[in-house]
Write the structure tokens for this entry.
Amino acid sequence: MPVGDIGKPLGRGQYWAKRVLFASTGTSNATSWVVLAVALTGCWLLGHLLGGAGRVAPHWFYLPVIFAGVRFGPGAAFVTGVFAGVLAGPLMPLDVADGVPQTVPDWATRLAFFVLIGQVVAFLVARSHAELAEELRRLRLHEDLRRGLALDEFHLAYQPIVTLGTGEIVGAEALLRWTQPDGSSVCPSTFVPVAEDSGLIVPIGAWVLREACGQASAWSRSLPPERDFKISVNVSALQLADPDLPKHVQAALVESGLRPSVLTLEVTETALIVDIEQSVAALVALKAIGVGLAIDDFGTGQSSLAYAHRFPVDVIKVDQSFVARIETDTASAAITASVIGLAHGLGMQALAEGIETAGQLALLRSMGCDLGQGYYFDRPATPEALSERLALASVG
Ligand code: C2E
Ligand code: MG
Ligand code: MG
């Protein structure tokens, strides 16, 4: 399925400029040591070819010293500085043809400068090393994301949502998956933030909507009419701020023939509280289409209680970090119970995420939680696997 406009390659110039400046991050340790050895030998040969240290001062030795400082830090810069000092000193005569040696103070001073500059560079770079590496990683991931979109490397997995009372599957959450050409997968918590920063989440999100609605429409047609089944799709902060989101949603519904009430859009609490007024307006516009709305990862934001009543949502999803500790930590259990109470008090349903054990399920049931999802029931799976589960459940 085409994904729409994925924009121009972003930051290519910037990427390569940084790559050259910071060549070290992309090369393995072994390669970098070989580069250093070759550079030092090359510098020594150059000095000899130019006639010796008396004809021209061998300042080019600073290059391998700086490289060692950037690539490996102060230790390697020190060793390289000493090597450079010896190669450019006792091992390089003043005049190669006559074999006149350099004076000790001359070459020793140069050696001291090589070591000093190496240490200064290593010190300056150490502070921005992690930052540059992270920026480079994100730029590379961004380029890979664009390629992934163009080459159709994305697909959706579906995790069942069940009624806690009966265990019946009443819906599924569509979760984005990315498998790269070498077969490795990148998890959404790694690539979704990069897609958000670069704006690529907008075309990706539009694709997810169309794909999930198409699949849900097929499920709705295959299930008995009285069977309640909803599909949940995650929507990022950037998508929510996009004035075209209602249009994308409408288009996906029309294209798939899905009834609006079958679709639930999930927005994280953190995304909602970035700009409360704008979020309320966006949610009202989506509500007008007739789709359901859910607050995802509830409890991880900072002002949950103060604003929950302002959002016209149908479901509050208790964040899985609370569910994970519900059996062992009284505070997490108390927070979970309060969130369930809050949801009911506001006329919404409560859904617990990340249920992994029978003990967690029992506690959540006793707290009156309506819905749940988690590995205890099912892991996110292919649409075919969920079709089988739904068919079995319908027969049962
Ligand atoms: P989320 O929307 O809160 O989705 C639930 C996450 O919890 C999923 O991780 C799911 O695989 C995982 N999970 C489900 N049950 C369990 C369990 O019992 N134990 C544990 N430990 N984890 C469980 P996933 O698929 O890695 O997605 C992570 C997040 O990435 C999602 O959190 C959502 O915020 C984001 N995401 C995924 N797909 C999309 C998408 O299509 N669009 C956008 N904007 N965000 C997405
Ligand atoms: Mg979600
Ligand atoms: Mg969640």
Notes: The longest helix spans residues 104-150.
